User: Fold these one by one.
Assistant:
Number 1:
Amino acid sequence: QVQVVESGGGLVQPGGSLRLSCAASGNFFRINDMGWYRQAPGKQRELVARITSGGSTNYADSVKGRFTISRDNAKKTVYLQMNSPKPEDTAAYYCNVQIWLTLLRSSDYWGQGTQVTVSS
């Protein structure tokens, strides 16, 4: 059984900082790409940042220069460092991981979501 657990969400003030974590556990061979998505009320889920197994990153234009995605392969964890968050960053953040269950089969898994609220 594969589990993806997120943590680190909460209330943060504009101009503050927050770091989200997402750890994968279970029986699998390897983690490939990992990413963060978010969904605000009344809006579709959107890509925030993504990082490949080789370390290449991709960011939404709205968060470039403010958010940083990173990974720790030993801990099987992906992070999202949120600096200078804005009220419009308020959303439920979801972690997505592509996991190689075996050498021949991979599957996408999603975290349960963690709420980030940016407010004074």
Number 2:
Amino acid sequence: QAQLVESGGGSVQAGGSLRLSCAASGNIHSRYCMGWFRQAPGKPREDVARIDTSGTTTYADSVEGRFTISRDNAKNTLYLLMNDLKPEDTAMYYCAAREVCSRYLLDWNYWGRGTQVTVSS
């Protein structure tokens, strides 16, 4: 069955960097739109970045210029490089997939279990 598994989270000081990975399996492949979302305690889940099947990327204003989403189709893996991390980036980060990109959270079909990112000041 389809599965997404995130890795690479951890604790880092403000200004540091982390790279998250999302390994896809099952029927999730290069023709799927992929995205990263995050959820901080007490707040709703929000978009972080997405990449479509042609490689076009979209970022939330809060991470534009600091985060980079990419995909390695040969490895069927999605990445999120996070630079200049800030305390407000602290959240559980989730990988998601859908045949066609969507702006709406509930449209995304497949989700990983998440990986925690904690940024200290």
Number 3:
Amino acid sequence: QVQLVESGGGLVQAGGSLRLSCAVSGLTLSSYAMAWFRQAPGKEREYVSLISWSGDSTYYARSVKGRFTISKDNTKNTVSLEMNNLKPEDTAVYYCAAGADYMRLVRTTGVDYWGKGTLVTVSS
């Protein structure tokens, strides 16, 4: 059974930092691209960041570029999202996602597997 389990969410002040982690089991990370999505209250789930199956390429939504960093460790079967200079508008449930085709992983329709999410709340 494929499982993606997020951790590291919580409450942080604006301007602070958090590191999210996703533990993956049941699939080989070297064969899958990984992504982070987020969903704020009352809004649709949106793409945040993407890393290719090889780990050579990373991509970011314009709203987080320069503040967030995605990484993947194929040996440890983990993917992380380092979030710096957090803003109240970053408040959302963050979801780890896996997809065989990284070119389609910028959309929810390109996701093959989802985690259950972890809540990040950024206070003023």
Number 4:
Amino acid sequence: QVQLVESGGGLVQPGGSLRLSCAASGTILSQNGMAWYRQAPGKERELVAYMTKFGITVTADQHKVRFTIARDNAKNTEYLQMNTLKPEDTAVYYCRLISPEGYVYWGQGTQVTVSS
């Protein structure tokens, strides 16, 4: 069984940086596609960035300057590096895995709050 555990969220001041982690168990991340989504209250879940099993990264145009997705194969962990954070970035951030067979798994989410 696949489990995804996000961590690294918290309260950050505007202009600050934060790195979110998504630790996977029950699967090897390099064999799957991984994505980071976020959802603010009253809004739809929004794709932030995606990494294919081949290591190709795709970041949404809105976030490509400040957000970067990465993977540490040794730790079987996916990361989302967020820089120059703004209050508008406040949301619950989720990691999502899709297996080669098409199975989708979500983490529980981690809260990111950007406020002075």
